[in-house]
Amino acid sequence: MDLDSSIMRAAGMRERDRRHVWHTWTPLREDRAQAMFSHGEGYRVWDVDGKEYIDATSCALSAVCGYRHPELDAAVERQLRRLHHFDLSTGSHEPAGLLAERISSYLPDGLSRTLFVNSGSEGFEAAMMIAAAHHAHLGRPRSRVVSFARGYHGSTLLCRSLSALPRVGHLFEPPLPVTHVELPAAPARLRRPDALQPLMRAFERAFGDDPGDLPMAVAVEPFLNVGGGIMLPPGFLPALRRLCDRTGTLLVLDEIFTGYGRTGRMFAHQHEPAAEPDILVTSKGLSGGYVPIGAVTVKEHLHQGFRHDPVLGGLRYGHTNSGHALACAAALATLDLLDKHDLPHQAEVLGARLLERLAPLASTGRVADVRGLGLITVVELATPEAATRLVAQARRRGLLLRRQGPEGLAVMAAPPLTIDQQGIDTLADRLWLALADQ
Ligand SMILES: Cc1ncc(COP(=O)(O)O)c(C=O)c1O
Which of 5, 88, 421, 430 has the fewest CB atoms within 10 Å, i.e. is most exposed? Predict the structure, then answer.
């Protein structure tokens, strides 16, 4: 195709998109058709004008193995030629069992039962239903949930009510009572050990001491993603685990973003001992973002509780495409790659390198904080305008970054875990240049 016709073709694609596509989460004044991509390979993507980018957004923070990975492509194609799917509410298929067993193999013994869904939000909906049912099965119903005000667990009605982030507000009364915990320190200071005590005091207050009003569950991310790329103080999850044990509250961990190697461990809670959840919700990286899937992995006794459920006799929850066979096949291939190349370790090593390259940004006077966990690096700017400029200049320089946080100050680099050292160095160079461009 000659240059003129490819320019016209790209213009046509953008025009069609602007006329017909309702972009998720997007204010109407913003133009997503500007950033229209045609193909990708490894940690890079190309837009419809032929410009190349390092994708430090990993698609939707989901492409842990990057784009067009030959082994992922082959696994999905292989499954497609056998059986695209069979409904798990009326039957089963082999990839579902293999995947559920495989997820459990990375977790302690009790966490051995997985319900498949199609997204993180659906996973959280299910987790809340399971938590409520658990307390009903014990004969002392509870319904209240404790969560971070800055937490984010999804965009469905129930999930939205778990968050107090301004853009996640909803138009209806919350479907269940929620106590939101505010951060006792600024995002840049929360990772310090001295933040643990005030944070735990805030959670203890939120739990309360009225035996008739204890929470059914506490829902937290080990690293606050949408809330601003915030790291929590060491010891937080084990302390929360102990508080849950004392009060009979279920610990529901949202590892929708942090799961599957991203933070330098298979799951982020595995950075600390004695932090295992009762319910673990994962999605994004599970299938490398190839085919939608989410997993709700629970302790077996929660599953067995439904055997005696006098009303339902089982969890009456699911979706047409829950545990889609193509998604399970993609997920099994993703986990094979994570294991074969020890990508969690790679994330730790390359993340440390990226953080080392970017940490000096904090002394330029333009950056408020630089922090990181595995292959998540956050550059926090002093003003939202500066963050907007940094993301725009980075894009001009061939680097895709993501904004997070209600103030729009956190700029996040989270490339595919399959990126190499050269890719990390180019990413860091482009980010430095983008900041200098301002
Ligand atoms: C920590 C966290 N929880 C939940 C969700 C919701 O997942 P989904 O968009 O797949 O519904 C997200 C998505 O960004 C997330 O980052």
Answer: 5
Q: What pLDDT is recorded for position 169? A: 73
- Between the CA of residue 437 and those of 237, 371, 396, what are the distances in Å? 40, 22, 10
- In the sheet that holds 294-299, the strands lie side by side as 111-117, 294-299, 279-282, 250-254, 217-220, 145-148, 178-181
Identify the pLDDT of residue 174: 86
Query: For residues 240 and 125, what is the distance between their CA atoms, to the nearest angstrom?
Result: 22
292 Cα nearest atom in ligand 1: 10
Distance 6 CA to ligand 1 centre (A): 36
H or E element at residue 54: strand 52-55
Would you mind telling me the total number of residues written for the chain in this entry?
438
Q: Are 154 and 283 in contact (CB under 8 A)?
A: no
CA of 262 from ligand 1 middle (Å) equals 14
Instruction: Judge if the beta carbon of residue 152 lies within 6 A of ligand 1.
Output: yes
- What is the set of domains in the chain, with CATH numbers? 35-68+342-436 (3.90.1150.10), 72-340 (3.40.640.10)
How many Å lie between the centroid of ligand 1 and the Cα of residue 256?
Answer: 6
Helix %, strand %, coil % of the chain (to 5): 45, 15, 40
Burial (CB < 10 A; 0-12, 13-18, 19+), residue 278, is buried
DSSP state of 182: P
Report the distance separating Cα 365 and Cα 436, nearest Å.
12
List Cβ neighbours of 260 (8 Å cut-off, separation of 6 or more): 64, 266, 267, 282, 284, 285, 286, 334, 335, 338
